[in-house]
## 1
Amino acid sequence: MISFKQARDVLNYAKDFHHQLSRYYKTLNDKTDQVRVKMLLDYLAIHEEKLEKNIEHIEENISAKVLGTWFKYTLCEDLRKELSSMIIRIDDMSVEEIIRMAIQLDDCLIRIYKKIAQNSDIPEIRDIFTNLSELEDHEKRRFVMDSTRMYDM
């Protein structure tokens, strides 16, 4: 379902998503005894906190006029579909499965940010969401490199 939202609503949703995902990774961490899985979940919790802070920083530098801009919004629905396709069974999940799940979530956000940027007629909105997609992609690449190093330990 597509609805119309302001830019600030989308940014708040994205911040909240990263916040909730960080908390979720911490909860999963408490439920496992696997050392590598614990390390990875710790890393992911910090990764999500960093992304939340990055969005806060971006938001602080956007004018009230731009934050109040209305446009079509699909973030919530796309993320719901992605999340509902993932079943977390921490008891028997491997490091590889967790990495794959985290990459899927990052890819979903990148697609959403790109879609918002491409569908916006407003240059500032296009720039904001292009920057967010690049930031998310950069952090995903860093995660992949770091998790590869962790896995090789």
## 2
Amino acid sequence: MENSTFLSFMEFIQEAEIEEEKCREYIDIGWLQPIEADKFLLSSNDIFKVRKADRLCRDFELPCHAGAMIVDLLEKIDDLENQLAQLRNALE
């Protein structure tokens, strides 16, 4: 993980600006995974994706798993677009 720091559960929810219950739901569905389960350390790299999922859930009144799925799909689309751009550049 690039430039990742690890935060306690409470630090993470404060930084991500989400409710404790929502964060637990993301963990329960396996979308957000503590680095060390016994210490409940979470990666700071996940803050942006959790904020995005939470915003989608609030704006469109979606359950957590739907917001998580949308964020994952958006990340995959972004990765594919980057790969396509690299291929195009390589062919030029």
